[in-house]
Write a structure and sequence with these properties.
Structural class: alpha/beta
Strand order of the largest sheet: 3-2-1-4-5
Oligomer: single chain
Distance between the termini: 95 Å
Order of helices and strands: HHHHHHHHEEEHEHEHHEEEE
Number of helices: 12
Helix content: 40-55%
């Protein structure tokens, strides 16, 4: 009964509204204006005296939504509610309409797999300059059938304009950078030998080294010419502020078309690559031997650099070698011989069933506990 009463009241209101609209056609313009003033005054009185917000029915909302679509000046006559409320009514009606149209409960567009979503975010994170069309094309080449709108939905949103990081900037210029530096080695006669090292940043390759007891600017410039013959000179040369890199060295660098980049005073971290290589040479070779003269030091360094390029793995190269090598599977009975350094010969037996490491010195003297077996000083039996 209550529902029927509401429907009848609503019909009566609509009928009264229709009759009022029909009668207004027959009235004069002055009468309509006076009627509008009277109605607005009554609405103002009701609005002042009403303690609660007026309750509107669905038909009332539909009327104002229709008026907002067909009447441009509808906001000036709206007093009961705010114009934003009418716009909200329209949006809710639009949402209900499409909810009914898509027939909720039936399967719609298939969901994007989690692996594809993670891949889209990973590509977007690693390539901030790529947009949805570029990433969508890459996914199509990978055989992933997905729409471009779905790709744009899962892209990472950057608040700032996309820009490469310093790590990316340095990685893009690694092939153009070379570092040079000196380090000293004492001999058995307490003389000091100087080793000049040239390191390429791209694959951590030691391009050249030289050993001398009396380093000069002329000798250093000659070593640089030997390291970069013909047109193999890099774009940038990174070095410290040592006085040996004097006028002759600077002129030679300019003549080769290389731009010299000096590190800040007392800042070895600015030449981290070459400093780490020098530390590796000391830890893996020079700390475990006594050098006699220049020729013996050159011979040991040559053997170390050969192993450094071909077999030694590097964390900076994703645990690969400067000269890429393939994965070698274990093969029983095969012996891999590695050059010997320093007069120490060791044999390491690795094999089933114990899988234990046993070190025996061929000279009959066991190595001390603090001795670290360098890769160059062993023969590995697999």
């Amino acid at each position: 009964m209550h529902l029927v009463r509401e429907v009848l009241n609503s019909m009566a209101e609509w009928l009264a509204l229709f009759l009022a609209a029909a009668s207004s056609v027959l009235k004069s313009r002055a009468a309509l204006q006076l009627e509008n003033v009277a109605l607005r005054h009554q609405i103002g009185v009701l609005q002042r005296s009403a303690k609660k917000r007026p309750r509107l029915q669905a038909t009332d909302r539909l009327l104002w939504v229709w008026l907002s679509r067909v009447w441009t000046d509808w906001r000036s006559s709206l007093v009961i509610v705010k114009p934003e409320t009418v716009v909200l009514w329209h949006r809710n009606a639009f949402r209900l309409f499409w909810t009914w149209k898509i027939r909720r409960g039936q399967p719609g567009r298939p969901a994007v797999p989690r692996e594809v979503r993670d891949l889209i975010r990973h590509i977007s994170r690693e390539n901030p300059g790529w947009g949805a069309p570029r990433i969508h094309g890459e996914l199509l080449k990978l055989g992933i059938n997905i729409g471009e709108t779905s790709v744009s939905k899962y892209l990472l949103r950057n608040r700032k304009p996309p820009s490469q990081t310093w790590r990316t900037f340095l990685d893009n210029h690694l092939k153009s950078f070379v570092s040079v530096d000196f380090f000293t080695v004492p001999t058995i006669r307490f003389h000091v030998l100087y080793v000049f090292l040239v390191l390429a940043h791209a694959r951590r390759r030691i391009l050249h080294f030289g050993v001398t007891a009396h380093p000069t600017a002329e000798w250093t410039a000659q070593q640089l010419r030997e390291a970069f013959p013909w047109d193999s000179a890099p774009r940038y040369l990174l070095c410290d502020r040592d006085r040996i890199f004097g006028h002759d060295f600077v002129e030679q660098v300019k003549a080769m078309g290389i731009k010299q980049v000096l590190s800040a005073p007392r800042s070895p971290w600015q030449r981290a690559y070459v400093e780490r290589v020098i530390g590796t040479i000391r830890r893996e070779c020079l700390d475990h031997m006594v050098v006699f003269n220049e020729s013996s030091l050159s011979r040991h360094l040559q053997a170390l650099i050969s192993d450094y390029h071909r077999t030694r793995t590097h964390l900076a190269l994703e645990k690969g070698a400067p000269d890429p090598r393939s994965v070698e599977l274990p093969n029983a009975g095969r012996i891999i011989s590695i050059p010997e350094v320093g007069g120490l010969h060791h044999r390491t037996n690795v094999g089933p069933p114990e899988h234990r490491l046993r070190c025996v010195c061929q000279s009959g003297v066991a190595p001390p506990r603090s001795f670290h077996l360098a890769p160059l000083c062993m023969k590995v039996l697999i």
